[in-house]
């Protein structure tokens, strides 16, 4: 199933409810219905290359959904100037009965859309009512999918973007459909913002708590290794911290591990009603990406692809 197939078949209006259900199932530890270990990571760092690279394996079994899958995802921090994507991914969908491979699928569209979909769910649950200003830090693939998901799901009055290379932010502004304000600094972008998405390849904090307004919601998508940061300690300590997977965050998130804060709840706990949504406080959703998100997205694509191709 190609990238083009996946792009044509995946839509936020169908994807987001499935992601919400999957996050809820993942966090309801009562049954063994969902099996999704923390991602296995293999570094593939070349001696002469100064940028970090890894391969992540993300196997998942969802019994009631009849999904057995694994994603193979490479994150290559290639540095400025490369035209290749930072994330390349393939999802393998298997038949849970036989163990045979059903489909080998493009995983890049799935990764972009399910990550933005999960962040949109976090905003739906955790941002203050009447949120008007969205700020996006970073202007790469995830920034774009977040822009698309957030502008489709919510009605922000203003969308601001920041990139450490201003020309990249200008390019982003020209490539999207709606109005976007390009900001010269992170501080300018997040000043008074109700919702902030951090989607950079930075390994050092880019967002500082002193700039974040009370009650703001932060969807933190980058910094997916235990020694990488996007958020500073002030922000992490001031915020109520939610994660997609608590176990994942304790192993993979530098923002959580190095700040020493506790994950208050998983997003699925809020969906299940077992933990409150502290909309009145600064909230951080620390997203690392989960196999269950890929599994339900891949099933959605595959079922539609199958129906389409069997009608040919
Ligand atoms: N949580 C998840 O499920 C998930 C899924 C996919 C990607 N990610 C992460 O999201 C981040 C963005 O991924 P992407 O696919 O959009 O990558 P990308 O390469 O397309 O975009 C990265 C952006 O970060 C900017 N950037 C690079 N170095 C920076 C620095 N030092 N400081 C500030 N900005 C910098 C780049 O200019 C670019 O705009 C990565 O960290 C990636 O690992 C997370
Ligand atoms: O869950 C994922 O697909 C990503 C890939 C890149 C790094 C972080 N997590």
Automatic annotation (TrEMBL):
SUPFAM superfamilies referenced in this protein's UniProt entry, alphabetically: NAD(P)-binding Rossmann-fold domains (SSF51735)
MF (Gene Ontology): pyrroline-2-carboxylate reductase activity; thiomorpholine-carboxylate dehydrogenase activity; thyroid hormone binding
Catalyzed reaction equations: L-proline + NADP(+) = 1-pyrroline-2-carboxylate + NADPH + H(+); L-pipecolate + NAD(+) = Delta(1)-piperideine-2-carboxylate + NADH + H(+); (S)-cystathionine ketimine + NADPH + 2 H(+) = (3R,5S)-2,3,5,6,7-pentahydro-1,4-thiazepine-3,5-dicarboxylate + NADP(+); (S)-cystathionine ketimine + NADH + 2 H(+) = (3R,5S)-2,3,5,6,7-pentahydro-1,4-thiazepine-3,5-dicarboxylate + NAD(+)
EC number: 1.5.1.1, 1.5.1.25
Quaternary data: Homodimer. Binds the thyroid hormone triiodothyronine (T3); T3 binding inhibits enzymatic activity.
Family statement: Belongs to the ornithine cyclodeaminase/mu-crystallin family.
Descriptive protein name: Ketimine reductase mu-crystallin
